[in-house]
Amino acid sequence: MPELPEVETVVRDLRPLLVDRRFVAIRTSGQSLRAQWEKTWEAQLLGSLVRAIRRRGKWILIDLEPAGLLVLHLGMTGQLTVVSTATAVENHVHLTFDLDTGDQQLRFRDIRRFGSATYHQDEQEWITQNPERLGPEPFDMEARYFREKLAKTDRSLKAILLDQSVVAGVGNIYADESLYTAKLDPRRRGRDLQKTEADRLRKAIVTVLTRAIKYRGSTIRNYVGGSGLKGGYQDEFLVYGRTEKPCYRCKTPIECIRLAGRSTHFCPACQLPEARR
DNA sequence: ACAGGATCCTGGGGGC
DNA sequence: TGCCCCCAGGATCCTG
User: Fold this and answer.
1) Which domain range does residue A25 map to?
2) For a tag site, which of A18, A28, A108, A228 has the least CB within 10 Å?
3) What is the DSSP string of A203-264?
4) A73 Cβ contacts chain C strand, under 7 Å
């Protein structure tokens, strides 16, 4: 589910609701998430003050005082919200943190349980333990770095964009939207891109993600922001989910294929290299 | 090195 | 109404 724009929206929504709050009680569903929740973490978390909440790729990091870091990943169907204690508890709520406001709680709901929540001493410990090596944030990614990454691999552009160690935060929707915006065929090999094409793709990623954040991300099924609001970018998709519908640029029907194990939407005409168009 | 498939889960939609 | 199959914003592991 949630990719960078959705996670960023959650973090922005939660910031005013969580920062300077303390966790005064913790409850778990007992159902396992992607990573096992350790009961011993609860003693560390209880009474802790939330100093900051931030995003890294698709990960949510909550900095605690006097020490510690709560790290969450929303997987495909995760929802992290602050709601009134009076709000009926939905099914699939796996973690609940009561806040010291007395009438609010942080809830982690995840239908498919592909998400995770873990506690770490500090960020370094998380980075060391996390098998996923995260690449740069798309907004900070240097042109040269990206060109060189592309030049070194035979993988498809789609597979490269989905690889969190190349660039952090892009997922299936925004990979397709970025490739469409950059007019690049998702099946092209990284190595085959011209410099100008690589730069175009890097800029397209930034453009697409920035715009999606403005719309508070995309809600297709389950995604909601930190206060329960749905996203709006699903109505702005240029290519994702538009199978068989006419391309907005050239009217050619949008194609959907499987690539890098994921459904991939693209215009078979205007995403071709110039030479073959 | 890379592609593809299976896996972890639940739920919704379509076809019959 | 029910059943079966396929699909889904992610990531990882295994095979060839």
Assistant:
1) 4-129
2) A228
3) HHHHHHHHHHHHTT---SSS---TTS---SGGGS-SSTT-TTSBPTTT-PBPEEEEETTEEE
4) yes
